[in-house]
Design brief:
By secondary structure, the chain is of the alpha+beta class. It has 10 helices and 16 strands. It starts with a helix and ends with a strand. Bound molecules: calcium ion (2 copies).
Length: 447
């Protein structure tokens, strides 16, 4: 387009604007008001106001919904957090349940172990007590910390049957005690009570008695049953005659010898039985039959008994098994017997030498008490004896006492009778004149 055209168009626009302005001056609002009916105007305004109000409500509702959405999100987050917490707690609970089960198992395992250890402790304590007792017997003293089993003991295991059951005891016999008794010269007497009343083994015998007491207490035995238990124990020991085991006959054994040697013959097992029964407090005697020895015990029973100082002592056979209290083997029936109580008695031995000068005998006697009781008011008696039983020129010493194990040397001078067939007799007599020991020379003739 040319510049002329542009100019024409510009002029046209300006003219057009002027026409528009003039028109606007004609159509003023008052003109509109006057043009539209009044009620339309009010309704329009009302609708406009309603619209505005609804818009405001809408906006408020929208913002409220937005707020609730935020709130819901917050609640969701809380729920998730709670769920997480719940899951954690659930897991922890499961873990704790597992822990609880494991702890209960561990607790019952510990309880079992505790009980087992308690039993072991009791057994150990019993063993310790037994060893301690042995140790004290061996050494005579209580150790501060005994840690090793006692040396110098001889272990002996015994089993026997009584009352339908089998019983077992283990003894630790002090070696020095056994050696003491086995080295001891046999006491020259038929009164075997001195083998029971010898005091050195009393303490050890009481520990053996403790073993029987334990059984008797546990089983609730009465007196007869206790005696039967002890007798069954001794009867179970093997019978060994003297000549086989010791090389000579009538070798009486002290109780510990019979236990260590594992048996003996009648006087040995009777000595052991009466040592146990006497130690337990039962009235006990030794029954000395021809060629046999048994025991008598003061219990309420029936059968064969010996009366001693108005007390009935029922016979107990100690050799062989199965003999009941009061049962006397047929081989020994109808014989008389001597009864030796279990009380300490002196047993006297003596030696003497004599020389004669001018029909005067000088005699030197060595007298010893090898028994278990003191000799009181004993005398030495010396005389010449004729072959008709006559006693010539007797002399006596003054009274003397001899403690257990003690010995005394006594000199006596006696006149020798002239022109007789004679022998010298030497006696140790007690206060009642009973002969406690006696010896004689060979027969000879005097000038
Ligand atoms: Ca004794
Ligand atoms: Ca014997």
């Amino acid at each position: 387009m040319s510049g002329k055209t542009y100019a024409l168009m510009l002029i046209g626009i300006i003219l057009g604007g002027c026409v528009g302005y003039a028109t606007s001056l004609v159509y003023i609002p008052e003109a509109v008001d006057s043009y539209f009916p009044t009620n339309y105007r009010a309704r329009f305004d009302g609708l406009t106001q309603m619209y505005q109000d609804l818009s405001g409500m809408y906006d408020a509702t929208v913002s409220e919904i937005e707020g609730l959405g935020v709130e819901i999100e917050g609640l969701h987050a809380s729920i998730e957090a709670l769920q997480g917490q719940y899951d954690d707690l659930d897991e922890a609970h499961t873990d704790l349940e597992g822990d609880n089960t494991a702890l209960q198992e561990a607790y019952s395992a510990l309880t079992d172990e505790h009980e087992a250890r308690g039993e072991t402790l009791n057994e150990t304590q019993e063993s310790y007590d037994a060893l301690l007792m042995q140790y004290m017997i061996v050494t005579g003293t209580a150790p501060f910390t005994p840690q090793t089993p006692p040396e110098g003991t001889i272990r002996k295991d015994f089993t026997w049957a009584y009352g339908g059951e089998t019983w077992a005891i283990t003894l630790y016999i002090p070696e020095h005690l056994y050696d003491y008794y086995s080295d001891r010269t046999r006491v020259p007497t038929a009164d075997y009570s001195v083998y029971v009343t010898h005091p050195l083994d009393d303490e050890y015998i009481s520990t053996i008695i403790g073993e029987f007491d334990d059984i008797a207490t546990a089983e609730g035995y009465d007196d007869v049953q206790v005696v039967e238990l002890v007798v069954a124990f001794v009867q179970s020991l093997p019978y060994t005659s003297d000549d086989v085991t010791t090389g000579f006959d009538e070798y009486a054994r002290y109780p510990l010898e019979t236990l260590v040697d594992g048996g003996g013959d009648c006087e040995d097992t009777s000595i052991l039985t009466s040592a146990l029964l006497d130690g337990m407090g039962y009235g006990t005697v030794l029954v000395n039959l021809p060629e046999h020895v048994g025991v008598g015990v003061d219990v309420d029973h029936y059968g064969t008994y010996w009366l001693y100082e108005d007390v009935k002592y029922y016979y107990v056979e100690t050799t062989g098994e199965g003999w009941e209290i009061g049962a006397l083997p047929e081989a020994h029936q109808g014989h008389s017997a001597t009864v030796d109580p279990i009380i300490p008695v002196p047993i006297i031995t003596h030696d003497w030498t004599g020389s004669t000068l001018s029909h005067r005998l000088t005699l030197v006697a060595d007298i010893q008490n090898v028994g278990t009781g003191e000799a009181k008011d004993f005398k030495l008696f010396v005389a010449y004896e004729g072959d008709e039983g006559d006693i010539w020129n007797a002399v006596e010493s003054t009274f003397f006492d001899l403690a257990v194990g003690e010995e005394i040397i006594i000199n006596l001078v006696a006149n020798e009778p002239r022109g007789v067939h004679t022998r010298i007799v030497v006696r140790v007599i007690d206060a009642w004149g009973d002969v406690m020991d006696e010896s004689a020379s060979t027969w000879f003739d005097t000038s």
